[in-house]
Automatic annotation (TrEMBL), chain A:
<dbReference type="GO" id="GO:0097354">
    <property type="term" value="P:prenylation"/>
</dbReference>
<dbReference type="InterPro" id="IPR045089">
    <property type="entry name" value="PGGT1B-like"/>
</dbReference>
<comment type="subunit">
    <text>Heterodimer of an alpha and a beta subunit.</text>
</comment>
<keyword id="KW-0677">Repeat</keyword>
<dbReference type="Pfam" id="PF00432">
    <property type="entry name" value="Prenyltrans"/>
</dbReference>
<dbReference type="GO" id="GO:0008270">
    <property type="term" value="F:zinc ion binding"/>
</dbReference>
<keyword id="KW-0862">Zinc</keyword>
<comment type="function">
    <text>Catalyzes the transfer of a farnesyl moiety from farnesyl diphosphate to a cysteine at the fourth position from the C-terminus of several proteins. The beta subunit is responsible for peptide-binding.</text>
</comment>
<dbReference type="InterPro" id="IPR026872">
    <property type="entry name" value="FTB"/>
</dbReference>
UniProtKB/TrEMBL annotation, chain B:
<keyword id="KW-0460">Magnesium</keyword>
<dbReference type="Pfam" id="PF01239">
    <property type="entry name" value="PPTA"/>
</dbReference>
<keyword id="KW-0808">Transferase</keyword>
<feature type="region of interest" description="Disordered">
    <location>
        <begin position="1"/>
        <end position="75"/>
    </location>
</feature>
<keyword id="KW-0677">Repeat</keyword>
<keyword id="KW-0637">Prenyltransferase</keyword>
<feature type="region of interest" description="Disordered">
    <location>
        <begin position="112"/>
        <end position="134"/>
    </location>
</feature>
<comment type="similarity">
    <text>Belongs to the protein prenyltransferase subunit alpha family.</text>
</comment>
<feature type="compositionally biased region" description="Low complexity">
    <location>
        <begin position="1"/>
        <end position="11"/>
    </location>
</feature>
């Protein structure tokens, strides 16, 4: 009932012991009882997979939005993340979070700076990551009251001030430049329908209109691909799972993924590296070569596959076929999946659920659940359970911020030969780039698009 | 002038009275030492509330009996005494009496030794208020109450002295002259220390008496000129943190000094204090850097401080951006002095070794390290040796392998700037490519299933523009009897088999490549079956 792939050590193992192998062996040892259906607190189905404990996770996530005890002081600069993580996870679990609208709007208002963007809390510097989290949280609760919190003009100016001559973005004034900045900026610009033109105050301003917010961004992303094929946080560093998603997500917002991903990245090396992140018997993903599996990479690495698979998929129209084929560099489409969905789903449901009354999802057995892992473990589960396709949309020259609708559609659930999880445990699909439900990204984008068509941005 | 009458003491808390049964604190008794029979307390009071009640009763002889049964129930002498008391206490009532009647009244009062002064309102047990523990103060024993009263007096005295200190400081600041000595007012160093000591006492008393906390900064005379800006969040704010008081206070001062863009030693100390409580507060780090640059402080001092902080907070990454900013600022000042640069590089390397010993794969440390190499131009043997030591320590440390790749192939002395990491670079000398291939292969033998040197090997081949087939013999060492049956087939490294599949594809040996991929999918690396199947499809496209 449980394939031995998930209950036994891998067939090739080295004798040499180092810190890395010891940590790896300990992790496998910690996971095996859960994977083998031996944990007393779970009820396993005939495939040796437990149900998802919706009720407890939902309770845990609502609590994460409430008043946090003093020990959370270390999170004082990342409170917007708690909003996004919790609301996103609740949404994926099927909860209606619109009743948080007023509270999210009020909280966000207190974190917004007159000079544009949102900080980690009141009177903190605006930061790309916290701004991204606030914007997504507002999109998740939806509605005019939430959208209108955002001062888009100030936001645009602020983004211009972070844009660097080399194409990338700083994460805040005086802060570091990295690929998170690139991804977050692309998401913010695209969701809020911001203009691409630069202000003269921008470090990337060239004195004319020859460069804009997206100029050189894809080249910056390319500089982050390493010799291993994965993506690093900034040029010259180690390939890391979280940054792989940022890279692909960013590119997918700049242009049609079929065209832009092969143009800027070495796709075979990237796929090789991404695929190497999945381990057996754990089934989950690690973030780097020779590091341990961690539930959060279910999203950061797992979320790369829909984008890669879309980039490999043939465009439907014949006219686009030629362009498409050259862009894909002669790589074949993927027939089923580039990674083991079964492995990932097993890891998530068996190893990442806190089965005590605490609830929530976690990195791995023995670790405490938290809002961060709850969000990204569920995002990963969602992308493993739902199939997205990129419709043929070569006509629109993309999503260059003009809010052209990226033609992602989710397929209805397939009746698989063997489905190891209970039908009721299917998680709500989320958009492969924005990582929120499709209808939420549509609502916020069309709200601003309409608004601008009526009155113009300025 | 009314004659002196025996007065009941006022039940005022600030008057540290002893129990009044013997009326020692009253004005001298006018007539005799005899006391009014009805006013002798039956017992000494156990609480201040009870004491007040007794005093009230003492000051109003016969009142209790009258209240109970009416004036007519009293004996005639008692009735006279009661009425006289009423008149004695009220000048308004006396005004209605004629001179003679008044004289009569005072005579009577004196003879009967009636109390003239008395508490106006009837004491109620709740009127004392509650202490910080929620206990009624009226329920205190007199001794305890006196103790509290003494502390309140002490606090008041301290507050007055503190105001005087602030006043002196203000005069000193304005350069005013002392009115008596005609000398300029100066604030001595010891006066500040005294004031600090005074505030500590005030804080302790306020906490004890009223449960009020007086924060560290409120206690510090140095911060008196800053009006803290407290957090003003709506009630309904989500994920609000119940901040410890010390943190909330420090942040409220941070907001205030940031708003006025103050850069000063005290601001630097404030940032240190906040960082010790929450090193993930990126705003405070950037503000700290601004302070250092604005005051032109010595960067090496700051780096020394930062070393300790980094060791305390291993997982924190704001520390590393701060260090990055410091080096950006510092480097131009030493750039022309090769000795200074190499000295600095050596001290940084030593510190990085120390921190990586705690956390060998810390992403932010390694990212900083690659930045540092580029900044200082330390592409040489020392850095290579340092990273080699880490690979020797744990051959699976992929961060170290990545750093080595950067060190070798991004060295501007023999690489083409701007070349993608996965692309060939003709500027890399052959012997370096050979050396690196050799290094990777030697390390592979230690643990053939370790993916790091395999990725490195492929990376070097790509950089050198070498054919994969140039390492076919090496890769083949780890695979035997492929496809020749379960008994015979041996794979000591799935990465070798993967590379062989690529080599066969490169050589257009499609069937051999397909077999390698199939065996990976079927047996040797089953979790990646989807990937191996896709690779098989690639063979068709390539073919």
């Amino acid at each position: 009932m449980i394939p031995d792939l998930f209950t036994q050590l891998p067939p090739v193992r080295d004798d040499l012991e180092t810190d890395t192998s010891e940590a790896q062996d300990e992790t496998v040892e910690a996971c095996l009882p859960f994977l083998a259906g031996q944990d007393d607190l779970f009820e396993y189905n005939e495939h040796g997979v437990p149900r998802i404990n919706r009720e407890k996770h939902i309770k845990f996530l609502h609590n994460s939005l409430g008043r946090l005890p003093g020990g959370f002081v270390a999170a004082d600069a990342s409170r917007p993340w708690f909003l996004y993580w919790s609301l996103s996870a609740l949404t994926m679990l099927g909860e209606d979070v619109s009743h948080y609208r007023e509270a999210v709007a009020e909280t966000a208002r207190g974190m917004q700076n007159d000079t544009g963007g949102f900080g980690g809390g009141g009177r903190q510097l605006s930061h790309m990551a916290t701004t991204y989290a606030v914007v997504l949280a507002l999109a998740l609760v939806g509605g005019e009251e939430a959208f209108e919190v955002i001062d888009r003009k100030a936001m645009w100016k602020w983004l211009c001030s972070l844009k660097q001559p080399d194409g990338g973005f700083q994460v805040c004034m005086g802060g570091e430049e990295d690929i998170r900045g690139a991804y977050c900026a692309a998401v913010i610009i695209s969701l809020l329908n911001l203009p691409l033109g630069l202000t003269p105050e921008s470090p990337a301003w060239t004195g004319d209109s020859s460069s804009n917010l997206f100029t050189g961004l894809a080249r910056y992303v390319r500089r982050c691909q390493t010799f291993e094929g994965g993506i690093s946080g900034q040029p010259d560093a180690e390939a890391h799972g979280a940054y792989a998603f940022c890279a692909l997500g960013c590119l997918a917002l700049l242009d049609n993924p079929r065209r832009i991903i092969p143009r800027y990245l070495n796709v075979p090396r990237l796929i090789s590296w991404l695929s190497s992140r999945q381990y057996a018997p754990e089934g989950g993903f690690s973030g780097r070569t020779n590091k341990l599996v961690d539930g959060c990479y279910s999203h950061w690495v797992g979320g790369c596959f829909p984008l890669i698979e879309a980039c490999l998929s043939p465009a439907a129209s014949a006219s686009a076929g030629q362009v498409d084929n050259s862009a894909r560099a002669g790589l074949p489409p993927v027939s089923e999946s580039l990674f083991s969905k079964e492995g990932l789903i097993r890891y998530i449901l068996c190893c990442c659920q806190d089965q005590t009354k605490r609830g929530g999802l976690r990195d791995k057995p023995g670790r405490l659940s938290d809002a961060y892992h709850s969000c990204y473990v569920l995002s990963g589960l969602s992308s493993a359970q739902n199939q997205w396709v990129l419709a043929d949309s070569d006509d629109d020259k993309s999503a260059t911020g003009t809010a052209a609708d990226p033609a992602w559609t989710v397929l209805p659930p397939l009746e698989e030969d063997v489905q190891i999880f209970d039908k009721r445990d299917r998680i709500r699909p989320i958009h492969p780039v924005y990582a929120i439900p499709d209808e939420n990204q549509r609502a916020i984008r069309s709200y601003f698009l309409e608004k601008d068509s009526e009155g113009g941005f300025l | 002038m009314p004659p002196k009458g025996k007065a009941a003491p006022k039940p005022k808390g600030s008057e540290a009275n002893k129990p009044s049964s013997t009326s020692t604190s009253a004005p001298p008794p006018p007539a005799s030492t005899t006391s009014t029979p009805s006013s002798v307390p039956s017992t000494s009071p156990s609480t201040v509330s009870e004491r007040s009640q007794q005093r009230f009763d003492e000051s109003r002889p016969n009142e209790a009996a009258r209240e109970k049964s009416g004036l007519s129930s009293l004996a005639p002498a008692e009735q006279v005494a009661w009425i006289s008391s009423q008149f004695a206490r009220s000048s308004a009532a006396r005004a209605r009496l004629g001179t003679k009647a008044q004289r009569e009244l005072w005579r009577h009062v004196n003879e009967a030794s009636l109390p003239v002064r008395a508490p106006k309102t009837k004491p109620s047990p709740g009127s004392w208020g509650k202490d910080r523990a929620g206990q009624h103060i009226g329920g205190y024993t007199p001794a305890r109450f006196d103790d509290r009263a003494a502390k309140r007096i002490t606090l008041t005295a301290l507050e007055i002295a503190s105001r005087a200190f602030k006043d002196t400081r203000e005069r000193a600041r304005k350069g005013l002259l002392d009115p008596l000595s005609k000398e300029p007012v100066v604030l001595a160093e010891n006066e500040i220390d005294q004031e600090k000591n005074r505030r500590r006492q005030m804080a302790a008393l306020r906490r004890e008496l009223y449960g009020q906390t007086m924060g560290q900064f409120e206690q510090d005379p140095e911060w008196d000129d800053v009006v803290p800006i407290p957090q003003d969040e709506p009630e309904m704010a989500l994920a609000a943190i119940a901040y410890p008081a010390s943190y909330a206070e420090a942040i409220s001062y941070l907001r205030a000094v940031m708003q006025k863009k103050e850069y000063s030693p005290r601001c630097l100390r404030l940032t240190e204090h906040i960082i010790s409580m929450n090193p993930a507060h990126y705003t405070v780090w950037l503000y700290r850097a601004s302070n250092i640059f604005a005051m032109k402080l010595l960067i090496p001092d700051e780096i020394e401080w930062l070393n300790e902080v980094a060791l305390e907070h291993l997982k924190n990454y704001q520390i590393w951006h701060h260090r990055h900013l410091l080096v950006d600022n510092y480097y131009p000042s030493i750039a022309d002095d090769a000795d200074k640069v190499s000295q600095f590089a050596a001290s940084e390397r030593a510190f990085l070794a120390a921190i990586l010993a705690h956390d060998t794969k810390n992403y932010h440390v390694w990212s900083y390290r690659s930045y540092l190499v580029g900044k200082l131009g330390t592409w040489g043997a020392d850095e290579l040796a340092a990273v080699e030591a880490m690979i020797t320590d744990d051959v699976r440390n992929n961060s170290a392998w990545s750093h080595r790749f950067f060190l070798v192939f991004s060295n501007p002395a023999h690489s083409t700037p701007g070349t993608a990491a996965t692309d060939p670079d003709p500027a890399v000398p052959r012997d370096i490519v050979d050396r690196e291939l050799q290094y990777a292969m030697v390390k592979t033998y230690l643990a053939p299933q370790n993916q790091s040197p395999w990725n490195y090997l492929k990376g070097v081949l790509a950089k050198g523009g070498r054919r994969l087939a140039s390492v076919e013999a090496f890769a083949a060492e780890f695979v035997a009897g492929l496809g020749e049956g379960e008994e015979v087939e041996q794979v000591r490294s799935t990465h070798a088999l993967d590379l062989l599949a690529e080599i066969y594809a490169e050589k257009r040996e499609k069937e051999k490549a397909d077999l390698a991929l199939r065996r990976l999918a079927e047996k040797w690396d089953r979790i990646r079956v989807g990937y191996w199947e896709w690779r098989r499809k690639c063979l068709d496209v390539e073919g």
